Amino acid sequence: MALLEAKKIASQYQKEADKCSSGMETCEEAREKAEVTLEAQRKLTAIWESRSRQKGWRQEGVAKSHVQSQGNVQAV
């Protein structure tokens, strides 16, 4: 009887562990997608900022941007 109960509890723990692993995989996939999207947005922002600077825009009183900290900007 104790062995049957132990198997039942072990099975429940395994199901919970599987749910947790699945959730972690989903979370990791979402994080990776967000990271790719963020990098693409940074590149686009850098391009627009570079174009603005070429046309005479000057950044005043604003924190340093990605373009300033990264140096040269390449088109996407």
From TrEMBL:
It holds the Pfam family DUF1068. InterPro entries: DUF1068 (IPR010471). Residues 66-76 have a biased composition (Polar residues). Residues 53-76 are annotated as: Disordered. This is Cellulose synthase-like protein H1-like isoform X1. It comes from Hibiscus syriacus (Rose of Sharon).
